[in-house]
């Protein structure tokens, strides 16, 4: 019988014999080492907590792509300034505690039709406040825009041009913000409506989704009312042609990787304040059944003055509604298209993009003053019929009792509370063809992350401004 060799086992033999155990131990160690290598070093300015936040949604202070935009909304009822702060992904970030700076003053630029210099100077306090929140090193790169809306569009002669030039001179002399040659202009109705649609759908997180997932918008300003909603490509292809010089019915927009066909139309002279003038004209300067009993005075709009007095029997819902229909020309214009709103205007064909309507500006204000919307809530679900119900009460009110009945309504608006509510109902139901019992969303602000943002067209304009080269 042979004896085993006395040769001692080598190191390589031991490795070979324990190769399974070594493999089990080494793989986890390698993985742990790789993870530690990929994480930020302890010498980085960012903590591990910062790292997780930055990779989820980068903090604006740590990003080089931060930008601001300053947008003036020069409306017929007042001037407002919005300042927005974006990160490089075009997500809104905070300015102090809010997601925007918003300041407003009254009256609007159109109130200074005879004094352009005074009109421009009315914006100084807003401009100073806006510049104060933009970092000094970013001001020369921060676009500023002044968008005048229907109030200036309604002025006669060259009054609008002279006011706009005075505002351009003001920006050139007083501001260090980036002001392009077209920064101060009168927005055409389609721009205003399109920007409003972009704003609300951006805040709701709808941009980039199919058009059927977006919401339609009706925005009732002082001088004009806009309707905008996304339609199918099929409907866009059959949109009626418009006379030379008029805005097309369909605007193509490419937003967040998706092409939208946006039906948008602006009705000049049919904003709430302008509509008062149209309804007063419809009564031929006679006593008006839309005016609360006890009022005798005048109404000024667009540089004109209209005799305004109540009828001896006071205001009347049905008689006021007849005047509103006459002002809207609902039954007077011939519709040459398959479907029309009022004044012979194509309605866009309807469809999924219109099934959820967000209704903004003066609709919300009057609903809150009339008591069927909470003025402290950013949104309210109502029906057009609610405006008619509120109008019934308003039209039975005398001017002497109006302040106690409508404590949140400004004194200058009290004589017109019946007229305003009747007009809003008539516009929605008879003008736009909305079913009286359809639920609509009155919107003043939209929740975005942990803040509320004003649901107005300037945000849409700001998005375009910071996206431009």
TrEMBL record:
Coiled coil: none annotated. Keywords: ATP-binding, Hydrolase, Membrane, Nucleotide-binding, Transmembrane, Transmembrane helix. The chain crosses the membrane at residues 21-39. The keyword Membrane applies. GO terms for biological process: nucleoside diphosphate catabolic process. GO terms for molecular function: ATP binding; nucleoside diphosphate phosphatase activity. Pfam families: GDA1_CD39. Gene3D superfamilies: 3.30.420.40, Exopolyphosphatase. Domain 2. It comes from the Eukaryota. The keyword DNA-binding does not apply. ATP binds at residues 222-226. GO terms for cellular component: membrane. The active site is at residue 192. Belongs to the GDA1/CD39 NTPase family. PANTHER family: ADENOSINE/GUANOSINE DIPHOSPHATASE, APYRASE-LIKE PROTEIN. This is Putative apyrase. It comes from Lupinus albus.
């Amino acid at each position: 019988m042979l004896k085993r060799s006395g040769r001692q086992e080598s190191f390589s033999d031991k490795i070979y014999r324990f190769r399974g155990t070594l493999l089990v131990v080494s793989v986890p160690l390698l993985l742990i080492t790789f993870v530690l290598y990929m994480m930020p070093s302890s010498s980085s300015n960012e903590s591990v907590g910062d790292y997780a936040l930055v990779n989820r949604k980068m903090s604006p202070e740590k990003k080089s792509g931060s930008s601001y935009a300053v947008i003036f909304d020069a409306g017929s009822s007042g001037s407002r300034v919005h300042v927005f702060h974006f990160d490089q992904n075009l997500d809104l970030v905070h300015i102090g505690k809010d997601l925007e700076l918003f300041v407003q003053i009254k009256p609007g630029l159109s109130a200074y039709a005879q004094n352009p210099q005074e009109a421009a100077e009315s914006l100084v306090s807003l401009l100073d406040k806006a510049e104060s929140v933009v970092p000094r090193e970013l001001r020369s790169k921060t676009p500023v825009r002044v968008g005048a809306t229907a109030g200036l569009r309604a002025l006669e002669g060259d009054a609008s041009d002279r006011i706009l030039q005075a505002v351009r001179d003001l920006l050139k002399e007083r501001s260090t913000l980036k002001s392009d040659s077209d920064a101060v202009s009168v927005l055409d109705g389609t721009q205003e409506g399109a920007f409003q649609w972009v704003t609300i759908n951006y805040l709701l997180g709808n941009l980039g989704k199919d058009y059927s997932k977006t919401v339609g918008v009706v925005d009732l300003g002082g001088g004009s009312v806009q309707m905008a909603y996304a339609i199918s490509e099929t409907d866009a292809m059959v949109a009626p042609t418009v006379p030379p010089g008029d805005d097309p019915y369909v605007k193509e927009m490419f937003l967040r990787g998706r092409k939208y066909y946006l039906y948008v139309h602006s009705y000049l002279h049919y904003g709430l304040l302008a509509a008062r003038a149209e309804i007063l004209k419809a009564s031929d300067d006679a006593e008006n059944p839309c005016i609360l009993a006890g009022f005798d005075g005048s109404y000024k709009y667009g540089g004109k003055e209209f005799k305004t007095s109540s009828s001896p029997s006071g205001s009347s819902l049905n008689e006021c509604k007849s005047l509103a229909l006459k002002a809207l020309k609902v039954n007077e214009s011939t519709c040459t298209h398959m479907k029309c709103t009022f004044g012979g205007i194509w309605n866009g064909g309807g469809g999924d993009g219109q099934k959820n309507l967000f209704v903004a500006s003066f609709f919300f204000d009057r609903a809150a003053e009339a008591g069927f919307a909470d003025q402290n809530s950013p949104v309210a679900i109502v029906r057009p019929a609610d405006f008619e119900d509120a109008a019934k009460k308003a039209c039975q009110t005398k001017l002497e009792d109006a302040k106690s009945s409508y404590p949140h309504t400004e004194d200058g608006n009290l004589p017109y509370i019946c007229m305003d509510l009747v007009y809003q109902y008539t516009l929605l139901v008879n003008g736009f063809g909305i079913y009286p019992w359809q639920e609509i969303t009155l919107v003043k602000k939209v929740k975005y992350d942990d803040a509320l943002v004003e649901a107005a067209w300037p945000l849409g304009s700001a998005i375009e401004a910071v996206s431009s080269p």
